[in-house]
Amino acid sequence: MRIYFTFDPRPDLKEPLVKQFPHVEFIFHARLDEEELEKADVLVTYGEDLNDSRIEIAKNLKWIFVASAGIEKMPAKAIAERNILVSNVRGIHKTPMAESILAHILSLKRALPFIYENKRNKVWDKKAQLSELNGSTALIIGPGAIGSEIGRLLQAFEVYTIGCNRSGEDAPFMNETYRIDELESQLPKAHIVISMLPSTPETKHLIKLDHFKLMRDDAIFMNFGRGNVVKTDVLIQALEQKLIFHAVLDVFEEEPLPLSSKLWEIDNVTISPHFSSHSSRYVERSLEIFKPSLEKWLNGETDVENKMNILRGY
Protein backbone atom coordinates (compact mmCIF):
# COMPACT_ATOMS: atom_id res chain seq x y z
CA MET A 1 0.00 0.00 0.00
CA ARG A 2 1.55 3.27 -1.17
CA ILE A 3 0.04 6.53 0.11
CA TYR A 4 1.18 9.74 -1.50
CA PHE A 5 0.77 13.12 0.22
CA THR A 6 1.13 16.15 -2.07
CA PHE A 7 1.82 18.28 1.00
CA ASP A 8 4.28 17.73 3.81
CA PRO A 9 2.80 17.77 7.35
CA ARG A 10 4.81 18.98 10.32
CA PRO A 11 7.08 16.30 11.84
CA ASP A 12 4.97 16.13 15.02
CA LEU A 13 1.95 15.17 12.88
CA LYS A 14 3.73 13.03 10.29
CA GLU A 15 5.72 10.82 12.63
CA PRO A 16 2.74 9.48 14.67
CA LEU A 17 0.93 8.71 11.40
CA VAL A 18 3.83 6.65 10.06
CA LYS A 19 4.25 4.89 13.41
CA GLN A 20 0.53 3.99 13.59
CA PHE A 21 0.61 2.35 10.16
CA PRO A 22 4.01 0.59 9.95
CA HIS A 23 3.02 -1.60 6.97
CA VAL A 24 2.05 1.37 4.80
CA GLU A 25 4.57 3.15 2.59
CA PHE A 26 4.07 6.91 2.96
CA ILE A 27 5.50 9.42 0.51
CA PHE A 28 5.42 13.10 1.48
CA HIS A 29 6.13 15.89 -1.00
CA ALA A 30 5.58 19.63 -0.86
CA ARG A 31 3.99 19.47 -4.34
CA LEU A 32 2.69 16.84 -6.74
CA ASP A 33 5.26 14.72 -8.57
CA GLU A 34 3.78 12.79 -11.50
CA GLU A 35 6.23 9.87 -11.17
CA GLU A 36 5.06 9.31 -7.60
CA LEU A 37 1.43 9.82 -8.58
CA GLU A 38 1.73 6.97 -11.09
CA LYS A 39 2.65 4.55 -8.28
CA ALA A 40 0.16 5.75 -5.62
CA ASP A 41 -2.70 3.60 -4.34
CA VAL A 42 -4.07 6.42 -2.18
CA LEU A 43 -3.63 10.16 -2.75
CA VAL A 44 -3.87 12.77 0.01
CA THR A 45 -4.18 16.22 -1.55
CA TYR A 46 -5.83 19.63 -1.28
CA GLY A 47 -7.38 18.84 -4.69
CA GLU A 48 -6.19 21.79 -6.73
CA ASP A 49 -3.19 19.90 -8.15
CA LEU A 50 -5.33 17.38 -10.08
CA ASN A 51 -6.50 17.47 -13.69
CA ASP A 52 -7.68 14.98 -16.33
CA SER A 53 -4.19 14.04 -17.49
CA ARG A 54 -2.96 13.42 -13.95
CA ILE A 55 -5.88 11.12 -13.22
CA GLU A 56 -4.90 9.19 -16.34
CA ILE A 57 -1.31 8.96 -15.07
CA ALA A 58 -2.47 7.60 -11.69
CA LYS A 59 -2.91 4.01 -12.90
CA ASN A 60 -3.08 2.45 -9.42
CA LEU A 61 -5.16 5.12 -7.71
CA LYS A 62 -8.22 3.86 -5.84
CA TRP A 63 -8.91 6.52 -3.18
CA ILE A 64 -8.43 10.29 -3.06
CA PHE A 65 -8.55 11.89 0.38
CA VAL A 66 -9.10 15.63 -0.09
CA ALA A 67 -7.88 17.82 2.77
CA SER A 68 -10.50 20.41 1.85
CA ALA A 69 -14.29 20.65 1.93
CA GLY A 70 -14.67 21.79 -1.68
CA ILE A 71 -13.89 19.62 -4.69
CA GLU A 72 -15.13 21.90 -7.46
CA LYS A 73 -11.65 22.32 -8.98
CA MET A 74 -11.10 18.57 -9.31
CA PRO A 75 -11.61 16.65 -12.60
CA ALA A 76 -14.89 15.08 -11.47
CA LYS A 77 -15.79 13.24 -14.69
CA ALA A 78 -12.36 11.60 -15.04
CA ILE A 79 -12.43 10.50 -11.39
CA ALA A 80 -15.98 9.12 -11.66
CA GLU A 81 -15.17 7.18 -14.83
CA ARG A 82 -12.34 5.44 -12.99
CA ASN A 83 -14.65 4.75 -10.03
CA ILE A 84 -12.06 6.25 -7.67
CA LEU A 85 -13.41 6.75 -4.15
CA VAL A 86 -13.29 10.36 -2.92
CA SER A 87 -13.63 11.57 0.66
CA ASN A 88 -12.90 14.88 2.29
CA VAL A 89 -12.52 16.67 5.63
CA ARG A 90 -16.02 18.08 5.88
CA GLY A 91 -16.57 19.37 9.41
CA ILE A 92 -13.02 20.37 10.36
CA HIS A 93 -13.56 23.93 9.19
CA LYS A 94 -16.41 24.63 11.55
CA THR A 95 -14.38 25.99 14.49
CA PRO A 96 -12.07 28.46 12.68
CA MET A 97 -14.75 29.53 10.19
CA ALA A 98 -17.41 30.09 12.83
CA GLU A 99 -14.93 32.13 14.88
CA SER A 100 -13.99 34.17 11.79
CA ILE A 101 -17.62 34.91 10.98
CA LEU A 102 -18.41 35.87 14.56
CA ALA A 103 -15.32 38.11 14.64
CA HIS A 104 -16.45 39.96 11.50
CA ILE A 105 -19.98 40.45 12.84
CA LEU A 106 -18.78 41.79 16.20
CA SER A 107 -16.22 43.98 14.44
CA LEU A 108 -18.95 45.69 12.43
CA LYS A 109 -21.44 45.88 15.31
CA ARG A 110 -18.86 47.38 17.68
CA ALA A 111 -17.17 49.64 15.06
CA LEU A 112 -13.72 48.09 15.22
CA PRO A 113 -12.72 49.30 11.71
CA PHE A 114 -13.63 52.85 12.83
CA ILE A 115 -11.53 52.43 16.00
CA TYR A 116 -8.51 51.06 14.10
CA GLU A 117 -8.66 53.83 11.49
CA ASN A 118 -8.82 56.51 14.18
CA LYS A 119 -5.87 55.00 15.99
CA ARG A 120 -3.79 55.08 12.79
CA ASN A 121 -4.75 58.73 12.27
CA LYS A 122 -4.38 59.71 15.96
CA VAL A 123 -8.01 60.81 16.13
CA TRP A 124 -10.17 60.80 19.28
CA ASP A 125 -13.71 60.45 17.95
CA LYS A 126 -16.75 58.89 19.63
CA LYS A 127 -19.12 59.44 16.69
CA ALA A 128 -19.39 55.82 15.63
CA GLN A 129 -22.54 53.87 14.81
CA LEU A 130 -22.54 51.17 17.49
CA SER A 131 -25.12 48.40 17.63
CA GLU A 132 -25.61 45.09 19.42
CA LEU A 133 -25.59 41.56 18.13
CA ASN A 134 -27.85 40.55 21.00
CA GLY A 135 -31.49 40.20 19.96
CA SER A 136 -30.89 40.21 16.21
CA THR A 137 -31.92 37.58 13.65
CA ALA A 138 -29.50 35.62 11.47
CA LEU A 139 -30.44 33.70 8.33
CA ILE A 140 -27.98 30.92 7.52
CA ILE A 141 -28.23 29.59 3.98
CA GLY A 142 -26.77 26.11 4.13
CA PRO A 143 -26.81 25.19 7.84
CA GLY A 144 -24.55 22.15 7.61
CA ALA A 145 -21.68 21.41 9.98
CA ILE A 146 -20.21 24.92 9.71
CA GLY A 147 -23.55 26.72 9.57
CA SER A 148 -24.79 24.87 12.64
CA GLU A 149 -21.66 25.81 14.59
CA ILE A 150 -22.25 29.44 13.60
CA GLY A 151 -25.81 29.05 14.86
CA ARG A 152 -24.59 27.65 18.18
CA LEU A 153 -22.28 30.61 18.78
CA LEU A 154 -24.88 33.15 17.68
CA GLN A 155 -27.51 31.68 19.98
CA ALA A 156 -25.13 32.33 22.88
CA PHE A 157 -25.61 36.02 22.02
CA GLU A 158 -29.41 35.48 22.03
CA VAL A 159 -29.57 35.72 18.25
CA TYR A 160 -32.62 34.13 16.61
CA THR A 161 -31.37 31.74 13.94
CA ILE A 162 -33.17 30.73 10.74
CA GLY A 163 -31.79 28.06 8.43
CA CYS A 164 -32.49 27.45 4.74
CA ASN A 165 -31.57 24.09 3.22
CA ARG A 166 -32.77 21.84 0.40
CA SER A 167 -35.15 19.74 2.47
CA GLY A 168 -36.48 22.22 5.02
CA GLU A 169 -35.77 19.61 7.72
CA ASP A 170 -34.63 20.85 11.13
CA ALA A 171 -30.94 21.69 11.40
CA PRO A 172 -28.98 21.90 14.67
CA PHE A 173 -28.99 25.27 16.45
CA MET A 174 -31.61 26.74 14.12
CA ASN A 175 -34.75 28.15 15.73
CA GLU A 176 -36.55 27.59 12.42
CA THR A 177 -35.60 25.83 9.19
CA TYR A 178 -37.08 26.35 5.72
CA ARG A 179 -36.50 24.99 2.24
CA ILE A 180 -34.15 26.92 -0.01
CA ASP A 181 -37.07 27.73 -2.32
CA GLU A 182 -38.62 29.65 0.61
CA LEU A 183 -35.57 31.90 0.90
CA GLU A 184 -37.34 35.01 -0.39
CA SER A 185 -39.90 34.93 2.40
CA GLN A 186 -37.16 34.76 5.07
CA LEU A 187 -34.74 37.43 3.81
CA PRO A 188 -36.70 40.46 5.11
CA LYS A 189 -36.49 39.11 8.68
CA ALA A 190 -32.70 38.91 8.89
CA HIS A 191 -30.21 41.42 10.26
CA ILE A 192 -27.42 39.04 9.14
CA VAL A 193 -27.53 36.81 6.05
CA ILE A 194 -24.79 34.16 5.86
CA SER A 195 -24.27 31.96 2.80
CA MET A 196 -22.46 28.71 3.49
CA LEU A 197 -23.51 27.03 0.25
CA PRO A 198 -21.13 24.75 -1.66
CA SER A 199 -20.47 25.14 -5.37
CA THR A 200 -22.93 22.98 -7.30
CA PRO A 201 -24.94 23.49 -10.50
CA GLU A 202 -27.97 24.25 -8.32
CA THR A 203 -26.24 26.93 -6.21
CA LYS A 204 -24.44 28.78 -9.02
CA HIS A 205 -25.74 32.39 -9.10
CA LEU A 206 -28.59 31.39 -6.78
CA ILE A 207 -28.62 34.79 -5.05
CA LYS A 208 -29.76 37.52 -7.41
CA LEU A 209 -30.29 41.28 -7.18
CA ASP A 210 -33.94 40.73 -6.27
CA HIS A 211 -32.79 38.85 -3.17
CA PHE A 212 -30.73 41.84 -2.05
CA LYS A 213 -33.76 44.07 -2.61
CA LEU A 214 -35.65 41.88 -0.12
CA MET A 215 -32.98 42.28 2.57
CA ARG A 216 -33.10 44.96 5.24
CA ASP A 217 -31.14 48.09 4.41
CA ASP A 218 -29.20 47.58 7.68
CA ALA A 219 -28.42 43.92 6.89
CA ILE A 220 -24.96 42.39 6.80
CA PHE A 221 -24.50 39.89 3.94
CA MET A 222 -21.71 37.35 4.39
CA ASN A 223 -20.48 34.82 1.82
CA PHE A 224 -18.21 32.15 3.31
CA GLY A 225 -19.36 29.22 1.17
CA ARG A 226 -18.39 29.56 -2.48
CA GLY A 227 -17.98 32.71 -4.56
CA ASN A 228 -20.19 31.73 -7.48
CA VAL A 229 -23.38 31.69 -5.38
CA VAL A 230 -23.76 35.32 -6.48
CA LYS A 231 -22.47 37.15 -9.56
CA THR A 232 -19.79 39.73 -8.79
CA ASP A 233 -21.66 42.35 -10.81
CA VAL A 234 -24.79 41.73 -8.74
CA LEU A 235 -22.82 42.19 -5.50
CA ILE A 236 -21.33 45.43 -6.74
CA GLN A 237 -24.73 46.71 -7.78
CA ALA A 238 -26.29 45.84 -4.41
CA LEU A 239 -23.47 47.55 -2.50
CA GLU A 240 -23.40 50.67 -4.67
CA GLN A 241 -27.16 51.05 -4.37
CA LYS A 242 -26.87 50.60 -0.58
CA LEU A 243 -29.48 47.85 -0.65
CA ILE A 244 -27.68 46.45 2.41
CA PHE A 245 -25.47 47.94 5.11
CA HIS A 246 -22.34 45.88 4.50
CA ALA A 247 -21.00 42.71 2.86
CA VAL A 248 -18.25 40.48 4.22
CA LEU A 249 -16.76 38.25 1.51
CA ASP A 250 -14.30 35.43 2.06
CA VAL A 251 -14.94 33.82 -1.35
CA PHE A 252 -15.16 35.22 -4.87
CA GLU A 253 -16.03 34.15 -8.40
CA GLU A 254 -12.41 34.76 -9.40
CA GLU A 255 -9.62 34.17 -6.90
CA PRO A 256 -7.37 35.93 -6.17
CA LEU A 257 -9.69 38.89 -6.55
CA PRO A 258 -8.29 40.90 -9.51
CA LEU A 259 -6.79 44.29 -8.72
CA SER A 260 -9.15 45.70 -11.34
CA SER A 261 -12.25 44.56 -9.41
CA LYS A 262 -14.50 47.38 -8.30
CA LEU A 263 -15.02 45.57 -4.99
CA TRP A 264 -11.65 46.90 -3.82
CA GLU A 265 -12.95 50.46 -4.14
CA ILE A 266 -16.31 50.07 -2.41
CA ASP A 267 -16.45 51.23 1.23
CA ASN A 268 -19.25 48.99 2.53
CA VAL A 269 -17.52 45.66 1.87
CA THR A 270 -14.89 43.67 3.77
CA ILE A 271 -12.61 41.51 1.63
CA SER A 272 -11.04 38.42 3.18
CA PRO A 273 -8.66 36.35 0.99
CA HIS A 274 -10.47 33.00 1.33
CA PHE A 275 -8.66 32.05 4.52
CA SER A 276 -11.37 31.99 7.17
CA SER A 277 -10.85 28.22 7.57
CA HIS A 278 -7.09 28.53 8.09
CA SER A 279 -5.74 27.49 11.45
CA SER A 280 -2.54 26.15 12.96
CA ARG A 281 -4.61 23.01 13.66
CA TYR A 282 -5.89 22.48 10.09
CA VAL A 283 -3.67 19.52 9.13
CA GLU A 284 -4.01 18.04 12.63
CA ARG A 285 -7.79 17.95 12.27
CA SER A 286 -7.51 16.57 8.71
CA LEU A 287 -5.44 13.65 9.93
CA GLU A 288 -7.94 12.98 12.71
CA ILE A 289 -10.42 12.15 9.94
CA PHE A 290 -7.91 10.39 7.68
CA LYS A 291 -6.55 7.92 10.26
CA PRO A 292 -9.82 6.10 11.13
CA SER A 293 -10.76 6.12 7.44
CA LEU A 294 -7.40 4.54 6.59
CA GLU A 295 -8.01 1.87 9.24
CA LYS A 296 -11.26 0.99 7.47
CA TRP A 297 -9.61 1.06 4.06
CA LEU A 298 -6.86 -1.32 5.14
CA ASN A 299 -9.56 -3.70 6.46
CA GLY A 300 -11.19 -3.75 3.02
CA GLU A 301 -14.00 -1.33 3.91
CA THR A 302 -14.94 1.51 1.56
CA ASP A 303 -17.46 3.19 3.85
CA VAL A 304 -14.95 5.83 4.95
CA GLU A 305 -15.88 9.06 6.71
CA ASN A 306 -17.12 11.91 4.49
CA LYS A 307 -17.42 9.75 1.39
CA MET A 308 -18.46 12.00 -1.49
CA ASN A 309 -20.38 11.90 -4.73
CA ILE A 310 -17.78 13.53 -6.96
CA LEU A 311 -20.30 14.38 -9.71
CA ARG A 312 -22.71 16.07 -7.30
CA GLY A 313 -19.90 18.04 -5.69
CA TYR A 314 -20.61 17.04 -2.06
UniProtKB/TrEMBL annotation:
Q: Which UniProt keywords apply?
A: NAD, Oxidoreductase
Which residue ranges does the record assign to the D-isomer specific 2-hydroxyacid dehydrogenase NAD-binding domain? 102-275
On whether Ribonucleoprotein is a keyword of this UniProt record, the answer is no
Q: Which Pfam family is an annotated match for this chain, by its short name?
A: 2-Hacid_dh_C
Q: Name one GO molecular function term.
A: oxidoreductase activity, acting on the CH-OH group of donors, NAD or NADP as acceptor
Q: SUPFAM superfamilies attached here?
A: Formate/glycerate dehydrogenase catalytic domain-like (SSF52283), NAD(P)-binding Rossmann-fold domains (SSF51735)
Residues of the D-isomer specific 2-hydroxyacid dehydrogenase catalytic domain: 14-300
- Source domain of life: Bacteria
Q: What is the protein's name according to its record?
A: D-2-hydroxyacid dehydrogenase
UniProt-listed InterPro entries? D-isomer_2_OHA_DH_cat_dom, D-isomer_DH_NAD-bd, NAD(P)-bd_dom_sf
The UniProt family comment states: Belongs to the D-isomer specific 2-hydroxyacid dehydrogenase family.
State whether keyword NAD applies. Answer: yes
